User: Fold this.
Amino acid sequence: VTVAVVGGGQLGLMLGLAGARLGLRFRFLDPAADAPAARAGELLVGAYDDAELLRRLCDGADAVTFEFENLPAGAAPPQLLPPAGALAVAQDRLHEKELFRRLGIGTAPYAAVDTRAELDDAVAEIGLPAVLKTRRFGYDGKGQAVLRAAAAVDAAWDELGGVPLLLEGLVPFERELSVLAVRGRDGATAFWPLTENVHRAGILRQSVAPAAPELQGEAEELAAAVLAELEYVGVLAVELFQRDGRLLANELAPRVHNSGHWTIDGAATSQFENHLRAILGLPLGSTAAVAPSAMVNLVGEVPPLRRLLEVEGARVHVYGKAPRPGRKVGHVTLVEPDAERLRRLLELAGEPTAGAATIVA
Amino acid sequence: VTVAVVGGGQLGLMLGLAGARLGLRFRFLDPAADAPAARAGELLVGAYDDAELLRRLCDGADAVTFEFENLPAGAAPPQLLPPAGALAVAQDRLHEKELFRRLGIGTAPYAAVDTRAELDDAVAEIGLPAVLKTRRFGYDGKGQAVLRAAAAVDAAWDELGGVPLLLEGLVPFERELSVLAVRGRDGATAFWPLTENVHRAGILRQSVAPAAPELQGEAEELAAAVLAELEYVGVLAVELFQRDGRLLANELAPRVHNSGHWTIDGAATSQFENHLRAILGLPLGSTAAVAPSAMVNLVGEVPPLRRLLEVEGARVHVYGKAPRPGRKVGHVTLVEPDAERLRRLLELAGEPTAGAATIVA
Assistant:
């Protein structure tokens, strides 16, 4: 059984490692010859929209999926799962928001902005603070500008104007959460426990799960609505804000997601294995947490392996990527974390440790 | 960081998958071009004693280990861990037994047999039933003949005579156990909980852990003596018999071991990860069981993946080997097994299900 994957980053690597256990074989397509997933299968090196490479990628594959969200939707192979329609929605922040609105799922206030005049109108309507975002091709905080005062509008327009934009109200929220969901080819669904996430400079730094059990039902309901609407197959992540004890949807990721990495070590079935089960039409595995888990991203560079492994119970994942500021190069999960071990881990990861204990407690 | 491994079977594959998580790279040497470990690293195809290939295997490696026990000891690279001395002892059943005796560890009665006359003497001394075994190159019940009556001696000699042999008394035992131990470069040791094993036709079929907690101390003591005596580095398995509530040592495996496969899913740190940590001089991880686990080997052929995954909580491992009678082609671990799910799994694996429930209960 062979799985073809568009993209060969760490998500591809972790899909490949989860699938290798099951005896699956993998073929990846990535522009980088040193893509991390090369360690878990055959790597085709080239552009995501190279028709000949895509044909070779899919040739004889039992399932075709992607781990890189910015795959040009027009280049999507016909057998792609999750379906190209879901990818197209997730690639456009406006379509994403409109999907949420159509399904009755709350969001921050937003407005489409194509011209400077529309930006002024949107600022007047939504108020400040707000975030101006490119509708397409944003990730890890790139393609965004926060507007805190009217004086910042010019600079933001200079930086981002000229492509389709979205202005979103910056809503005060209690915390960031995400729900990871999976839907099989037969329509069966399953949901992992809610995950609480901490971002810094637009990059996910920490996740803790299970979180907010009182909101689990609401989260599953909104995720189920999205899965059904998109006739989805595979793992879907919905990033959420908790505000006044309710959930607002922020954005979709139509793929395995960084906030689900704790499931490798902390859940009965990982997001990676269930994604593969879903796209191959196999029965889904239990999404139950086996214990509370805390995940810390390694950003920029990997601390010495010895130091990480000295933290008792640390489940270390290193992606084999060259160090670069702001780049996700690994993560560490603590199952049944305590404040002291989490503090040591955050310190090694170069993260502020204040507040970490309150997340776990 | 690169690890060189002599052998590319499923043990190599599982070492590679455990190490891939940590960002390690692997190079394997195996005579088979379709060796399972090829999915987890670079594969050099050739004989285990090909000096030029061994040189290439070890070139630039940070650690050199083996997963194939019958590596010719004379061909062992100097940097090999576990050390070549441990390998040499484990390759000869007589030396193994003598090591146990020297350390005061109980064994079944045994005698070396090189000639037909010595066989008669040994039978007279030890009595029947007994097992005649080749001293070298046995595995999975191969190179063995059970002598239940004097009439069987001729046939056994005809089958096995001509190479150095060992006659062992067939002691009645309550059950088979194994202890998995690991020793770091710095001499630190750790022991997983005792595992109870069921063999059929000389092949391991089922393991359950933790088992026999009342014997854990005795098991750790004897394993620690072996580790120290051999100046061992890496994972060591000692197969044991429980007889009259005490432990008898049966044999050593100077490597990761089938009876430790449950540790991938059921222990804080797997035997594979701790073996890598040990040989790389990294701190050892906790060997605690996270929950009771039952492991069932898939022998001969892999049942349909769908059927295996339908068993709730089944952690399925498929090695990607061609089917062949008596060949280990995969295994499935149930964490927190119950009798019904274990019964279904044994049925899928083609194993007798009678008695399974009593093992878990």
